[in-house]
Write a structure and sequence with these properties.
This protein has two domains: 29 residues; 43 residues, no CATH class. It contains three helices and four strands, in the order ββββααα. A hairpin with a 2-residue loop joins β3 and β4.
């Protein structure tokens, strides 16, 4: 079904109605919001999220005590216990 009415030769009137959504006082086309939301959800689901092991590696490289043997042993031991019990989960639920 076409949404155009021919008024004169080579002159058409578009009769398609577009829904507008008010976002913070600005009227935005519903189709635009739908496309942006779908794109955002696809991008969000496809991205690799950092895991606790990534955060632990950063912590161990940045910590000033990481060169000490006892600190390194304890930190690795407790981190392994945590990962054994809870798994190497994503950091996003923790934020």
């Amino acid at each position: 079904m076409t949404h155009e009415i021919q008024i004169a030769p080579r002159t058409f009137l578009n009769t398609r109605t577009t829904r507008r959504i008010n976002v913070s006082g600005i009227d935005v086309d519903e189709d635009l919001i739908k496309e942006l939301l779908i794109k955002h959800l696809q991008d969000f689901n496809s991205k690799q999220r950092p895991k606790l092991s990534d955060a632990f590696e950063i912590y161990m490289t940045e910590n000033t005590s990481a060169h000490r043997r006892k600190f390194k042993l304890n930190a690795n031991q407790y981190f392994k216990r945590f990962v054994t019990q809870f798994g190497d989960m994503s950091t996003s639920p923790l934020i």
